[in-house]
Amino acid sequence: MKKKTVIYAATAVFTACALLALGYAGGRHFAPGNADATAAVATVNGEGSPADGQRRVLYWHDPMMPNQHFDKPGKSPFMDMQLMPVYADEVGADGVRIDPNLQQNLGIRFAKVRRADVAAGFDVVGSTQFDESQADVVQSRVTGFIDRLYANAPMQHVSQGAPVASLFVPDWLAPQEEYLALVRSQMGGALLDAARARMRALSIPDALIANLARTGQPQTHVVLSAPRAGVVTELNVRNGAMVSPGQTLAKVAGLSKLWLVVEIPEAMALRVRPGMKVDATLAADDTQHIVGRVRDVLPGINPGSRTLQARLELDNTGERLTPGMLVRAHMSDAKAVSQLLVPSEAVITTGKQSVVIVRNADGGLQPVAVTTGNDVGADTVVLQGLTQDQEVVASGQFLIDSEASLKSVLPKLNASGGTQ
Question: Does the predicted TM-score (pTM) go above 0.70?
Answer without folding.
Answer: no
